[in-house]
Amino acid sequence: MNQKVCMLLCYLPFLDSRIFECEAKSLLNHGFDVTIIAPRKGGLLFHVDGKPFSKQFRDKVFYYQGIKVVTYDSEKRSVNYLSDPLYQLGLKENADFYHAHELNSFTYGKEIKCALRQQNNKKVKLIYDSRQIIPDPFSLKINAETKQRWMRTLQDNLKEVDYIVTVSESIKS
Known about the structure:
By secondary structure, this protein is of the alpha/beta class. The chain has one domain (about 5-170): Rossmann fold. The protein contains five helices and seven strands, in the order βαβββαβαβαβα. It has helices spanning about 15-30, 85-95, 105-120, 145-160, 170, and strands at about 5-10, 35-40, 60-65, 65-75, 95-100, 125-130, 165. It has a seven-stranded mixed sheet, with helices on both faces. Helix 2 packs across helix 3 and helix 3 runs parallel beside helix 4 (about 145-160). The termini are far apart.
């Protein structure tokens, strides 16, 4: 049986070139089963340019180029991770590896890893694929308190991470 990788997305589109083209397809070609859990906005998935797909990718679960895509309604997100659809769908995948691409999805990955360890004594691996330290570098309303909260969240999540992928030496440090 192939090992399973589950990619968790809070905001990014599932066709993001780094996620889909560089990582998911490469993992698939190396024999992994790959699932991407991706958000819908207003019932629709969106392309990398932010425009919604109106005629394709309508099913909640589908395969695209051999990769399983499981979708959820981003409007149903919750501050309580136990009732959040990303957490619930990720837990249901029961993967061997959870691959997070944003600080928020990293938190869900950490919680899923802990839950699977407690419930099933399953040892899963958590990968954090960090592109930036600040989740939204273009936001003009980032105050010091928010930055400190993000840093505490990052440091807490790092206690459970198994692998980190970064795009630069500055983020790595």
